[in-house]
Write a structure and sequence with these properties.
By secondary structure, the protein is mainly alpha-helical. It has 1 helix and no strands.
């Protein structure tokens, strides 16, 4: 990309292109993992809110906390 913008005198080598593709795949994999984790956390929070609204769970009282 920098070669195309004339900030680099020579085109990237095949090895540089392969390394960049591997980096892009790592980024996509990590992003998918983060999105999955965030979705699971949102679903868990929604379930907990629903249980609280139904009265199935009572918020912990100060006296029942373990310190």
């Amino acid at each position: 990309s920098s070669w195309l913008t004339h900030t680099r005198p020579h085109p990237p080598t095949l090895k540089e292109l392969q390394v960049d593709i591997q980096r892009q795949l790592r980024v996509l994999t990590n992003a998918a993992m983060i999105e999955t984790r965030a979705r699971e956390e949102q679903e868990q929070m929604a379930r907990l809110r629903a249980e609280l609204q139904r009265g199935a769970l009572a918020p912990p009282s100060k006296s029942s906390r373990v310190e």
